[in-house]
């Protein structure tokens, strides 16, 4: 093989790697548009959060910021529209709260097979939020399927958690 062919092959491989890296890009919360911010995770592993502010004209504006919550196993992930829809979440929410669990429709969507089995990033986020309220998400989902009203009552009384700990589901 001639040296010019070897050089061309090496140059082609190097350019291919550069193009792949450029196309894949690094996810930086502050560079994301507001319609992709919520449920995204920066390449550094921190969750992105949508925040509001008042601009110079006094109007409400939105910006994407890095939170202090680190989730390395999903680093560089921007949630799909399919998961946002299946899980019943809204990219327009400012901040994320466990108050969403109080809406039976939300819990039903989050616990649905379409969300719970296919959207590990969103499930992981709400798993952690539920745990912060003393609720074990898999138990809440089991109870929600058999008796939605009872599940909500248990959640409201914070007795829905079993005290057990287990990792949230993660897809391959």
From TrEMBL:
Q: Name one Pfam family in it.
A: PAR1
Alphabetized, the UniProt keywords read: Signal
Task: Keyword check for Hydrolase, yes or no.
Answer: no
Asked if the record carries the keyword Signal, the reply is yes
| Top-rank lineage group of the source organism | Eukaryota
InterPro entries the record matches: PAR1
Q: Where is the signal peptide?
A: 1-24
Q: What is this protein called?
A: PAR1 protein
């Amino acid at each position: 093989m001639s040296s010019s062919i070897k050089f061309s092959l090496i140059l082609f491989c190097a350019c291919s790697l550069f193009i792949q890296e450029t196309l894949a890009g690094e996810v930086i919360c502050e560079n994301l548009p507001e319609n992709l911010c919520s449920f995204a995770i920066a390449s550094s592993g921190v969750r992105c959060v949508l925040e509001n502010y008042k601009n110079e004209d006094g109007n409400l504006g939105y910006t994407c910021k890095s939170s202090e919550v680190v989730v390395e196993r999903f680093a560089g992930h921007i949630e799909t529209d399919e998961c946002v829809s299946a899980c019943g979440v809204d990219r327009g929410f400012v901040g994320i709260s466990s108050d969403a669990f109080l809406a039976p429709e939300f819990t039903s969507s989050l616990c649905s097979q379409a969300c719970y089995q296919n959207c590990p990033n969103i499930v992981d986020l709400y798993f952690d939020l539920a745990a912060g309220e003393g609720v074990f998400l898999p138990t809440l989902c089991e109870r929600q399927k058999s008796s939605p009203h009872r599940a909500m009552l248990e959640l409201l009384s914070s007795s829905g958690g079993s005290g057990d700990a287990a990792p949230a589901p993660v897809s391959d």
